[in-house]
Amino acid sequence: MSSGLDLEKLKWVFRSRPDILTAIQQAADTPARTALFNEIADFVHQRLALADVQNEPAAKRRRVDADQPPSQPHANGHPVTGSWSAVSRGASSAGSSADVTVSEPVLLEIKDISVVVPQRKKYDICFTQSCLFAKAQGATGPAPGLVYPWIEIEHAFFLPVPDKSQTQYNYILLPRDSYLPTSKASGVSSDRQASLEPLVFTVPAAAPKAGSIKGTAAKTAEAFAESYSCLFHWALTTSLRAAGNESFQLISSDPRVFHSLVKQPHRPNEKAVHVKAFRGSKEGFLFFLPTGILWGFKKPLVFLPLDKIAAVSYTNVLRTTFNLVIELDSDVTAGGNATDKEIEFGMIDQEDYQVINENYVQRHGLADRSMAEQRRAKRQLAENLRKSTKAESSGEPSQNDGLTELERAAREAEQRLQDEEDELEEDYDPGSDGDSDGEGSSEDDEGTYDEEGCNEEELGE
């Protein structure tokens, strides 16, 4: 029954232990055991290949074919078919980048792609069976920190770039534990860098330039090269599913599901699928997606999956803007560290309140805790503090001084009498008694006036 074994992969994995390989061939006497040994070989191979990529060994090892994934539709309606194994089986390395010092051949290389995060620079994006990596033009290996194993990618998105006159798109790849801000209480900065940061790169709404696609899969890729987005959709979907994530989906925005009511002056005929928002002092964009809420594209990116959101609240509601506070479940962690339980996005346009509340919060059944007792207490505390600060700046007694209303009134009356006595002492002139027939006039009864005609008793009050 050993004929179903992936002997090529098993020989590579156990190349230093032929005794184990022989034992596996003898033990693979049922289809279930054969499938199990093949899965073990796949897993060990991916781990060894990843270690070799990160250590950049000098010698290349033989290629290993990937399993053929099922055909799936492209997110934009284009078909996603084919597999790495169809183009790499028996192929020579002539079509790959011969100078790339990795353990596997480059199946697909797409040149001159603008990377936005974690650093702004143009790179060549390379696909292998076990990872995606970016390399500088003319380099022989991956750029530091830009090797992304397929097994580490947890979320992937395809979104239009806001505030650009020409239509462009961002691909966002989020490794595990890279997208939730860690709480400062855990001893780690909330904006800490994960061991593997999110990757964001931009492509135009155009077809790839001639000669910009290389690798052993280049010939197959040409069938999907009608646009950069079609090409990357096929390559990412095929790679991630071949790596074991058979249910992988590349999430795109959809204006039919959510779009802003604020017009885009640079693209007036196109509905914006984002809203502008601040996180602290950083301005960015909120995308309300089928799987969660994404804030980008400034570092650090934040993605809040729907299944981790406990509730939302609307705060600081003003005439033109409001803030959105998202509360996460208490058990949410990132890489073993506690995360911020409330994340606030500020200065959102009031025009977008209704679409956010009705088209997203209510549609997904998210709890609205805007009127919760705790939040109302916070609002009352902020209002009292504002009044107290205003009173102190104007010389009035603070309303948060711990006095009762009666005690406060008595203190105010005492202060008023003291001010009047001080003013009478300053205005008193012994030589002015009886020097005018106007003494005791009705004007004097109303109080003394200074040279500008202002009632000094009123000023003293």
UniProtKB/TrEMBL annotation:
Domain Histone chaperone RTT106/FACT complex subunit SPT16-like middle: start-end pairs: 272-371
Q: How does it assemble?
A: Interacts with histones H3 and H4.
The record's comment on protein family reads:
Belongs to the RTT106 family.
Enumerate composition-biased segments (Polar residues): 391-402
Region of interest (Disordered), residue spans = 55-89, 367-461
Lineage summary: Eukaryota, Fungi, Dikarya, Ascomycota, Pezizomycotina
What's the superkingdom here?
Eukaryota
| Basic and acidic residues bias: start-end ranges | 367-390, 405-418
Question: What's this chain's function?
Answer: Histones H3 and H4 chaperone involved in the nucleosome formation and heterochromatin silencing. Required for the deposition of H3K56ac-carrying H3-H4 complex onto newly-replicated DNA. Plays a role in the transcriptional regulation of the cell-cycle dependent histone genes by creating a repressive structure at the core histone gene promoter.
Question: For bias kind Acidic residues, which ranges apply?
Answer: 419-461
A molecular function (GO) held by this record is: nucleosome binding
Pfam families according to UniProt: Rttp106-like_middle (PF08512)
Which SMART domains did the record assign? Rtt106 (SM01287)
What name has this protein been given in UniProt?
Putative chaperone protein
